[in-house]
Please model this.
Amino acid sequence: MSYINKFRLISLVEGVSFLLLLFVAMPLKYQMGMPQAVTVMGWAHGLLFMVYISMAMSLSARQGWSGMFTTLVMLAGMLPFACFILEKRLKKELPAESLQRS
Model:
């Protein structure tokens, strides 16, 4: 699997973890009195976010992304649903052979 495809996967997993934190763990904490949900999901999301940011910085250098695009990629990790838009953009810009590599 190419590095950019690994990043796309991490981006999706990180985005799902963010949504789970916001829409599952937070309601469990505040409506059901289960603070452990935020503790566990927050920890997992934080770890995934650090991996996402480090991979984004590395990929930016490898791919020669502009500062603006790199900033948008970083912001995509902080906004709900933005990682899914980013994933589509990265997939569209990749050559077909890089999507096929394993």
